[in-house]
Amino acid sequence: MKPAWDKLSAEFADSNVLIADVDCTADDSKDLCQKYDVSGYPTIKFNNMDTEGEKGESYNGGRDFDGLKSFVEESLAKSCEVGDQKDCDEREAKYITKMQEKGAEAVAKQLARITKMKGGKMKPELKKWMLQRLAILQQL
User: CA separation (Å) from 49 to 12, 21, 52?
Assistant: First the structure.
C-alpha cells in the first residue's frame, strides 16, 4: 500500500488536500497515534470540515491508488466553483473569466475538445489542469 499512498501524496501535492503518513511503531509517533485512536496498521484516517470530532474518521475503501484517489476527489478535495470562486486558484479564476468573455459557443467548443482529450495519456500536472478546465467548462 505504501507505493499507492506515496503516489497519492504526489498527485495531491499542489492541492488543498494534505496526504500524510505517520509510522505508529516509532517511539516519537506513539502519542500522536494514540491521540487519533490508531491501533492497527495500516490505518487510514481522514478529516475535513464536515468530519465530526478531531480524531477524524476511519477510511475503509479501496487501498489501491485508484480507490484512494477516487475517495479523495469525491470526498475531500475542494473544487473550483464558477459561482463561488473561493476555492479556485489564480489560474482557474483567469480561465473562468476568459471563457465567460468568449461566450457560450466557445465554451461548448472547448468542452467538446477537452472531453475528447480526457482518455489520453499525459503528464499528471497536464492531466490535472485538463480536469480542472473540464470541471469549469461543465459549470458554464
Answer: 18, 20, 8
Predicted model pTM: 0.56
The pLDDT of residue 121: 79
Please state the φ and ψ torsions of residue 29, each to the nearest 5 degrees: -110, -10
Show the CA angle centred on residue 63, arms to residues 123 and 40, nearest 5°.
135
3-state SS, 56-82, equals: CEECCCCCCHHHHHHHHHHHHCCCCCC
Separation between Cα atoms, residue 17 and residue 15, nearest integer Å = 5
Q: What is the pLDDT of residue 105?
A: 96
Q: Phi and psi for 128 in degrees, rounded to 5?
A: -60, -45
Q: How far apart (Å, rounded) are the C-alpha atoms in residues 59 and 121? A: 29
> What is the C-alpha separation between 90 and 96, in angstroms, rounded?
10
User: Which residues have C-beta within 8 Å of that of residue 71, sequence separation ≥ 6?
Assistant: 59, 61, 62
pLDDT at residue 102 is higher than 80: yes
The rounded Cα 38 to chain-centroid distance in angstroms is 24
Residues 6+ apart with CB under 8 A from 88: 80, 81, 96
